[in-house]
Design brief:
This protein has 14 helices and eleven strands. Helix 9 links the parallel strand 4 and strand 5. The termini are far apart.
């Protein structure tokens, strides 16, 4: 049996997606067909633009749910077919939709490897799915792939979530290990690879392996490297039949007009060039911070990272966090998940100089 038909909830496989006004008559499609629709009376919208007709962005109109221009640009950037693209309110929404699509409440499970992104667990608990934790191996912080395989086969495990680069620690996982996981669980589970930080790494996306593995799903986001965290735009990249079913459980209008316009501009040739320059700068600054941390006696562990953040373990971590806050710097308290854990995002050159100065002054 096809893996998607086998794993997806049967009631959703027979459902039809909500037919919103824009999904039945998309603005993009009208423009493509050279139809000049100037009077829109099909969506119960307020015809009066709050900002006046001279304002180009008419936010009184609903946007297309999956705007074709943006879908084409993302497909080009991610080097995949547009049928394999689902745009979401951040990759968080993609996680939520995947769990709702595949997990029957109080029957099915997901697997995570802590420490990891906390929303996998929260969305699973919201759906009533069981959360099985196969922690990272203590000796090298690698995913315990063999234990995942054994556990997934023993339990009714629909989804396995892997972050690569790993978050919140920051290191790269070996893609070959993830491929082996896809093979071992080819008729058991979907392998969801969250590539939120991949633009900062030298890793190649696993999107190019979709033809090889039917049970592979990729999550991407424009929040990190694209500097669009406030726009909330993520993408699920998967086989077309998975994308089609995900659209059934997704909200009718997942993207705002402003997010769509911002994303289209961010995917222009000039913007992509600027993004590349910023990534180079951030990676350089990350190395400078990493080196400075090595000279601090109270920092007893610095995790290897290929991302735009550094995880450390520090003596008196809570005092360090409070000290930084009093001096105008906010770092992330990870002590609830990692002993003495503090996560530091890489800022601008000037911000990082202040950070290092304050780190060196703390004792």
């Amino acid at each position: 049996m096809d893996i998607v038909k086998k794993l997806a909830r049967k009631e959703i496989q027979t459902m039809k997606a909500y037919a919103s006004a824009r999904s039945t008559v998309p603005i993009d499609e009208m423009a493509k067909d050279n139809q000049q629709a100037t009077i829109w009376l099909n969506a119960n919208e307020n015809p009066y633009n709050l900002y006046g007709e001279q304002k180009e962005e008419n936010i009184n109109r609903y946007p297309d749910p999956q705007p074709q221009k943006l879908r084409d640009l993302l497909a080009k950037f991610y080097q995949t077919q547009q049928e394999r693209i689902l745009m979401c309110r951040g990759s968080d929404e993609g996680i939520d939709c995947l769990i709702r699509l595949f997990c029957v409440a109080y029957e099915d499970s997901i697997i995570i490897s802590t420490p990891t992104f906390g929303m996998y667990k929260i969305y699973a608990q919201t759906q009533g799915a069981n959360v099985i934790d196969v922690p990272l191996k203590a000796e090298d912080n690698n995913v315990d792939f063999q234990s995942i395989i054994t556990t997934a086969k023993e339990k009714s495990t629909k989804l396995v979530f892997i972050t690569n680069p790993q978050a919140p620690l920051g290191h790269d996982l070996d893609p070959k290990d993830i491929e082996d996981l896809c093979v071992a669980l080819s008729d058991t589970s979907l392998i969801v690879v969250d590539e939120a930080y991949i633009e900062f790494s030298q890793l190649k996306s696993m999107i190019n392996l979709l033809d090889k593995y039917k049970n592979l799903v990729i999550l991407r986001t424009m929040s990190k490297a694209f500097a669009m965290a406030g726009a909330r735009l993520g993408t699920v990249v998967a086989h077309a039949d998975i994308i089609k079913l995900l659209s059934v459980v997704q909200a009718p209008y997942p993207l705002s007009t402003g997010s769509i316009d911002t994303a289209i501009n961010a995917l222009s040739e000039q913007s992509l060039k600027i993004m590349g320059e910023h990534i180079t700068l951030l990676n350089k600054e990350r190395s400078i911070i990493f080196k400075a941390l090595q000279d601090l006696s109270y920092v007893y562990k610095i995790y290897k990272t290929t991302t735009n953040f550094i995880m450390i373990q520090a003596k008196n971590a809570n005092d360090l966090i409070d000290y930084m806050k009093k001096n105008g710097l906010v770092v992330r308290d990870f002590t609830a998940h990692i002993t003495d854990g503090v996560r530091i995002s890489v800022g601008t050159e000037e911000q990082n100089k202040i950070l290092i100065e304050k780190l060196q002054a703390f004792s």
